[in-house]
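Meet our chain:
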Amino acid sequence: MLPEAGGATESEERLLTFVHIICDYAPGDMAWAEVTAALTAVLPESARMHLTAVGSFETIAQGFVIAQLGLAEERLRPGRTIIFANCAPRKDRQAARRNNEGEGLLFGTLKNGVPVIAVNSGFSLSFVRDDLVELWSVDVRDDGSQFRSRDYFPEIVGRAVSGDVSFRRQRLEPFSVIPEPPSQVIGYVDSFGNLKTTIRAGDPGVSALESGARIRAVIGNITRTATVATGSFNVMEGDLAFAPGSSGHSRRFWEFFQRGGSAWADFGRPPVGAKIAIETI
């Protein structure tokens, strides 16, 4: 949790500030260097940052990552964790934009005290919508630069870390400005080719599945059969499996994985957001 407005106490200053940066820049892209340099200029010297990339304009993946990192249990995150997320496809309006205007920036606080600063785009905050105890619009320029995450947003992150939240403009109702997360789609593809879905434990269609059952799954125009498993190593090498994965905390998300291979490649490399149809065999 970050300090209240008015500045940090001496004991709070000794706590590590940890900033999760989640953006749709390619790993190693120059944009990462510029954004982290701008953030370093406004953060305490002791602050640490970690960069997590999602695909270009993939607000579903960004929302998935925000929830996984922001809602982590206390033992798995530093006490002064803050999330800064920027994926701004500028799709809230189809008309031409003046002066590089983009979606607005929002500031929210999760029920565990973790602050989230994110562009209000697509599904970026959908996976934490139910966990926000407050949500505010932010007084920051939304035009004049096509690289707002370098030119404007770091100042807001720095002020939030210092306890200055005077940038808050208008309190918002999360359910009125944030869409619910998409159901039964690919939410995130990890580096092993595992397809993390937005199907959660207890959801209709999976609540009755038993380990060892066979299912037929359709993603795009690719159909595959898979075995329902209880974990990543409960199937033979090379088999395609469907099981509750490592994401989702108390209500884990189901995922497709191929032991020793890539479920993503086996399904023809579908994009995040691709619909999933499942039926038992």
